[in-house]
Amino acid sequence: MAGHSKWANIKHRKAGQDAKRGKIFTKLIRELTVAAKEGGDIDSNPRLRLALDKALSNNMKRDTIDKAIARGSGNIEGQNYESIRYEGYGPNGIAIMIDCLTDNRQRTVAEVRHILSKNGGNLGTDGSVAYLFEKKGVFHFSHEYDEEMLLEIGLSYGAEEVESLPDKTFEVTCAADDFNQLKEAFVTQSATPMHSEVSFIANLNVDLSLEDTKKTLNVIEALEDLDDVQHVSTNLNISDELISQLDN
Description:
alpha+beta; globular; Arc Repressor Mutant, subunit A; Alpha-Beta Plaits; disordered N terminus
């Protein structure tokens, strides 16, 4: 799981850059709209609750959030988005899953295929790489928190693992279905994560050279820059040594 944590931290830093460009808002609005379309309120719709938490943590204005939810609920006319997941391979056969929200399937698949193909990858069939991943809730906490406290809270509300990372932060993982109750437990007891998400985590990560890692990260970044792409999961492992080289 530690390989995922390093990748998640890289994405977390990148999220700040995305927010400055406004891209993150486009993706969050789509997620709010589609989640609201599933019906219910934040207590009965876990997807909507997660989307709302993400929007608020990124300082999205409440009226923007309300409009997106209203569109999804059918109270305001708007574009009709659908969820699509593409599976494929990046450079050196790295497994990639790409979750999208789109109003035009043909445009989205063409853009995704183009990025993969021009970088030595290709789209796969449904199920071609999904078996390599498991859906998990992931939390990251700064070093200011006590590991024993996180462990005590976590194990009481569904955490599967609490890990101390080399950068002195902590990673807590849980089953996807336990994400919301665990997050609420942490926040209620004044343990606010610096990053949290439900994501597909690889069961077995793959190591690449520095050069090939950079190529793969460039492909992932290009995919994430597409407006239709919400999330990219990969089985790329990034070692501590590679992290330091990438940061230099």
